[in-house]
Amino acid sequence: MYKVGLTGNIGSGKTWIAGIFERLGIGVFNADLEAKKLYGYEDVIREIVTLCGRQILTDKLEIDRRKLAQLAFSNHKILASLNQIIHPRVRGMFSGFAASRPHSAYVIYESALIFETGYYRRLDATIVVSAQQEIRKKRVMQRDKADEHFFVERNAHQLPESEKVKLGNFVICNDGHQLVLPQVVAVNDQILRLIIEYQKNGRNDTTGNR
To answer: Could you give the number of structural domains in the chain?
Structure first.
């Protein structure tokens, strides 16, 4: 089973692009969404409380995700420890997702932090969704009803887009000017051709990412 990463910095529109791939019949695993679900798991809550203290809980003894985000983005050690709690579980879930689709040509792992965590090395290829920073900032501020500080803070914890483009195998420009659908179709076709080519050659890696 070929595994393709789909990533992009905050406000790039990667989830919207992922939806187009789904309409083409490609299974998409939204890692960021699945990670949010984990905050409701009892074992995860216990580990986060051990890490951050009981002040991280709401009156209903649930994780206060807004408070957790503020704490994590202001403390690199806590952010790194939190990632160690969440990311291995999410990757395990993705393995199950991929295994449940044995007849698919490939599946997509959608996440904002594929390169930052080094997980791209376990994937066969990566797609980067690109958009200029000013465009991304405007989208985030409108979408989340947030101020500029919110965008700057979260954007600072992600690799510069230029670095992601260098590391990625495919780039889809989502700047509001270029048509997106033809780009997605072209990338999908290229991936399918690569898979066929390497299967013929008896190889299991399309791009040498691993």
So the answer is: 1
What's the CA gap between 11 and 28, in Å, rounded? 19
Distance (Å, rounded) from C-alpha 140 to C-alpha 13?
10
Distance set, CA 72 to CA 51, 79, 83 (Å): 11, 5, 10
pLDDT, average across residues 120-131: 96
Residue at token pair 């070929």: 2
Instruction: Tell me the C-alpha to C-alpha distance, in Å, between residue 157 and each of 56, 85, 109.
Output: 21, 18, 20
* Residue 153 is assigned to a structural domain of this protein: yes
Q: At 4, phi and psi to the nearest 5?
A: -120, 130
d(CA 133, CA 79): 24
Listed residue (9, 6, 7) closest to 136, CA to CA: 9
Domain that holds residue 179: 1-26+104-210
Partners of 163 in beta bridges: none
pLDDT in tens, 54-85: 999 999 999 998 899 889 888 889 988 999 99
